[in-house]
Amino acid sequence: MFGIVIAVILGIGCWGISYIIQPLKNYINRGSPPKTQETTQSKALIDYSVYELSSNEKAATLLVSAAVIFMVAFIFYKDILIAFLCSTSCFYFLRLRRSQLLLRRKAELNDQFKQALFSLSSSLSAGRSFENSIVETVQDLQMLYANPQTYIIVEFNIIVLKLRNGENVEAALKQFSERADMDDIRNFSDVLTICKRSGGNLVEVIRRTASMIGEKIELQQDISFLVAQKRFESRILSFAPLVIVALLNFSSPDYMLPLYEGIVGHSIMTLALVLLFLCFTLTNKIMNIQVQSR
Prior knowledge:
Layout: H1 2-28, H2 55-77, H3 80-87, H4 92-125, H5 130-144, H6 151-164, H7 169-180, H8 183-198, H9 202-226, H10 228-251, H11 253-256, H12 262-287
């Protein structure tokens, strides 16, 4: 029994540490795309409104979520059979993981698009045509991002390829905006199309549009950075009850014994577990301040 309790505490501790520091890690590594099957296929057109988990991601998600659910259920019930039955709910976390990776990919593309807009605006101000500015922007992005499979580099290379095949730049950007499913990219495409058709000052319009969209993206990033500390605190609070229950089981098993015997004890622990899950879900919804495309 002593070894099981220690294993449970260590397992939850390792998960808790990785879970708590994940919000800060996302801000450190937000410049490079995750190494998924999609990023290794530069010729495939990515639909950014849909994220399909790879086999490795599915297996890792199921294993980690099943292990965590098993440990949590074992702490609250001290019954291996009940803990095993509870761990079968790990398939629910596939949808959560898919949504998390989808939002992360859109946030990365949004940040990379801001850098592309600044480079495009500078190139237009230097007197280049819009088509040549696109090519120049690709070169700037390749110097900025070391990974050639970075989302924005892949997308701009696709646009350049379409331009060389005789397709107009408005259609190429519109196709990209439809796949990206993001307001900023869609608005930029619409502004470019209107400006081309109406014969306005393309350089000035693109410069002002790039400046406005860039300021909007920077404001969104500042808001996300400000709530990072609160998200960190909320995850600590979500993790703390598990540690308290595990420590009480280890230090005072006689004191906790009535909670593991009879219908009343199991009902109390079930109610506590449900409340803990509801609090976890609520704090995640409150702290999940992300830029939604629609």
